[in-house]
């Protein structure tokens, strides 16, 4: 369990680190978020392709697999758009409406059992997201994109459960990288930046951070029960806050910090009740 926990902490640090590199690309070099999203998928697909099992290419034609990959493409594109204007901790906090939505969709569409206590924690976590987004007060389009990214991601998580047994995990991993890379290529061509070493370095760091985090996540879940590791997913919020402070010199305001506490508390509580 200790090794799995350490892998989870590392994975949950690498994913926000990848998004930090994406934010630096957008802010410092004015690279369009859609090109950053495409480069992340394309580089990730190149890294993952040699490790795929036989039969992978036939799975890529499955409409359900394509739909799942498009949900992830929407989520990544939206979160990188949000990071262009918003602090990274605020974006991740708003993005965490995703697991809450997945919880709801899984109960509704996949008929998973839900208790009243889990529902109450779900509503508590949603209140935390509202404190971060502040609709009608300090609301901004950037945070709107972060919420939309979370909705895409929550749907992606439910679609992943829906596709259990359709293909091996490694095959699904390649599908969620390669399909968006192909579909988004014409859009990326429109926003193609003048490439330089800093831009290529940050694009690579963004792709490798995200890919490495997700690979380590798979290894961690192979070592320990998912219900024991699920609360550690919320370490992303802590990592994002630390990265926002050290790299960009920003810290969340009081209301946002209260929202972070509610989101983490609700997530940990819901994961504990699933055991």
From TrEMBL:
Subcellular location: Membrane
SUPFAM superfamilies tied to this protein: Multidrug resistance efflux transporter EmrE
Domain EamA, first and last residues per copy: 5-133, 141-266
Natural source organism: Nereida ignava
Superkingdom to which the source organism belongs: Bacteria
Assigned keywords, A-Z: Membrane, Transmembrane, Transmembrane helix
Residues spanning the membrane: 33-53, 65-83, 89-110, 117-137, 143-164, 171-193, 199-222, 229-248, 254-273
One cellular-component annotation, GO: membrane
Main localization of the protein described in the UniProt heading: membrane
Protein's membrane topology: Multi-pass membrane protein
Keyword Transmembrane helix: yes
Protein name: Carboxylate/amino acid/amine transporter
Family the entry assigns: Belongs to the drug/metabolite transporter (DMT) superfamily. 10 TMS drug/metabolite exporter (DME) (TC 2.A.7.3) family.
């Amino acid at each position: 369990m200790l090794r799995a926990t350490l892998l989870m902490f590392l994975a949950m640090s690498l994913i926000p680190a990848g998004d930090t590199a994406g934010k630096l690309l957008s802010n410092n070099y004015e690279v369009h978020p859609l090109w950053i999203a495409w480069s992340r998928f394309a580089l990730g697909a190149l890294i993952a392709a040699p490790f795929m099992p036989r039969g992978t290419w036939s799975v890529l034609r499955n409409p359900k697999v394509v739909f799942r990959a498009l949900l992830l493409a929407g989520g990544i594109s939206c979160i990188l758009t949000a990071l262009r204007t918003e602090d990274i901790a605020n974006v991740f906090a708003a993005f965490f409406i995703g697991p809450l939505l997945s919880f709801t969709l899984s109960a509704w569409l996949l008929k998973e059992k839900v208790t009243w206590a889990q529902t109450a924690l779900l509503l508590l976590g949603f209140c935390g997201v509202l404190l971060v987004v502040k609709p009608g007060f300090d609301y901004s389009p950037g945070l709107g994109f972060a919420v939309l990214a979370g909705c895409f991601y929550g749907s992606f998580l439910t679609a992943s459960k829906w596709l259990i047994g359709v293909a091996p995990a490694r095959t699904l991993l390649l599908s969620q990288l390669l399909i968006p890379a192909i579909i988004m290529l014409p859009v990326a061509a429109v926003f193609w930046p003048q490439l330089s070493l800093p831009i290529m370095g940050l694009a690579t760091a963004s792709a490798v951070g995200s890919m490495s985090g997700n690979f380590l996540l798979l290894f961690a879940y192979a070592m320990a029960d998912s219900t024991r590791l699920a609360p550690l997913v919320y370490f992303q919020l802590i990592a994002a806050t630390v990265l926002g402070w050290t790299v960009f010199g920003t810290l969340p305001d009081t209301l946002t910090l209260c929202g972070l506490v509610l989101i983490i508390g609700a997530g940990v509580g819901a994961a504990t009740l699933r055991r």
